[in-house]
Design goal:
Layout (H helix, E strand, L loop, with lengths): L1 H7 L3 H14 L4 H13 L3 H14 L4 H13 L3 H14 L4 H14 L2 H14 L4 H13 L3 H14 L4 H13 L3 H14 L4 H13 L3 H13 L5 H13 L3 H14 L4 H13 L3 H14 L4 H14 L2 H14 L4 H13 L3 H14 L6
Length: 371
């Protein structure tokens, strides 16, 4: 019990020492083995934790606390299926166990099994309606289901009673972003970053939010520290590229999109943005190459297709524009943009009757369309 209390107070060294002393008295204690496993996890000694946990479960195979820890360790070791299986086992042993239901609900949300997640959250709510993590998971579930207004309301209730609930603050920011209330999202992310300035995930969310409100310089202030060391993700460089595009600094935009593309060569969206930045820098041939690569990776990249057609139209290469449009029309036969581009290409070729037919088709598809 002493070791358990010390770990609860985050006195890791003292708690672990207490468990080791207890083990010297009784090597067959499942609770002591479980405590040592917790110590090993706290110290990131995962192999040791696995061994002690196995011993604990041999001694007491139906202990839900040990089975939950087994799931937690699986999560740490990037085994979400193993974690979910352990949490299900714990709930099966004790259907009313609050922690087991919370862990399983979170795993079910991650797996996209929203019906099962809702059941687990309901079990927790019946026993502890004001449980903070239960309220958080309810909001997360609503968010993942696309019920953003309801998620916002649930988070407002949570943050009324727990204004410093950091997971709730981040989720509230993500919900606000999805609802396009970007000023509110910025406030939530700022609150989190005041407490945890080193969070890469939230800095990226903040940068995305600032770019939505066309504040590229401020976005770069959040992104530059993330690019300073080794190991920055492609998405970070891509966001920086977008910021430089907003600043009309196409050379810097291209440099950052190049880094992003090198890290994620199969990402069609990044290749498209690299093509757009090269176009802005006046490198139309290289832009066409990048945009063609993006379409090859994902034929549905409408932005890439649009830019390819526009480049050919601007160059007076009307037959090449028509060639590019042919594949696009096969994929999207009822798109007024495609018909309008056909009209522009045929008009450039001097075939006014055919151009008129396509312009009329564009208007028939969308009477309010303005090309």
């Amino acid at each position: 019990m002493r070791g358990y209390a010390l770990l609860g107070l985050r006195r890791i060294a003292d708690g672990c020492l207490s468990y080791q002393e207890a083990l010297g008295v009784d090597e067959e204690s499942a609770a002591t083995r479980l405590g040592i496993a917790k110590c090993a996890i706290a110290r990131r000694q995962y192999e040791t934790a696995q061994g002690e946990l196995t011993q604990s479960l041999k001694l007491d195979p139906k202990n839900p606390e040990a089975i939950i820890l087994k799931g937690d360790l699986a999560q740490i070791l990037s085994d979400p299926k193993g974690a979910a299986a352990a949490y299900r086992e714990a709930v099966k042993l004790n259907p009313a166990h609050i922690v087991a239901n919370l862990r399983l609900a979170a795993a079910n949300i991650a797996e996209g099994d929203f019906v099962a997640a809702r059941k687990g959250i309901a079990v927790v709510h019946q026993q502890a309606p004001s449980h903070l993590h239960g309220q958080y998971l309810k909001a997360l579930l609503l968010f993942r289901e696309g019920k953003n207004a309801q998620a916002r309301d649930a988070l407002q209730e949570l943050l009324k009673v727990a204004p410093d609930n950091m997971p709730g603050i981040v989720l509230a920011g993500a919900v606000a972003y999805t609802l396009k209330t970007y000023g509110q999202a910025e406030k939530y992310f700022s609150r989190f970053l005041e407490r945890y300035p080193g969070s890469i995930y939230v800095r990226r969310l903040m940068a995305e939010t600032l770019l939505q409100t066309r504040q590229p310089q401020r976005a770069l202030e959040h992104l530059k520290p993330l690019m300073a060391g080794q190991g920055a993700e492609a998405s970070i460089y891509a966001l920086a590229g977008e910021a430089y595009m907003q600043l009309n600094d196409f050379n810097q935009a291209t440099a950052h999109f190049e880094k992003a593309a090198a890290l994620a060569p199969e990402n069609a969206a990044i290749r498209t943005e690299l093509g757009a930045s090269r176009l802005g820098a006046g490198q139309s041939d290289r832009a066409l190459a990048e945009l063609g690569g993006a379409i090859g990776l994902d034929p549905g990249q409408s932005k890439a297709g649009t830019l390819v057609v526009l480049i050919h139209l601007q160059r007076g290469e009307f037959d090449k524009a028509l060639d590019a449009l042919a594949g696009w029309k096969k994929r999207d036969q009822q798109n007024p943009v495609v018909e309008n581009f056909y009209g522009m290409a045929y008009l450039g070729k001097g075939e006014t009757q055919t151009a008129r037919m396509h312009f009329e088709k564009a208007l028939s598809l969308n009477p309010t369309f303005i090309g």
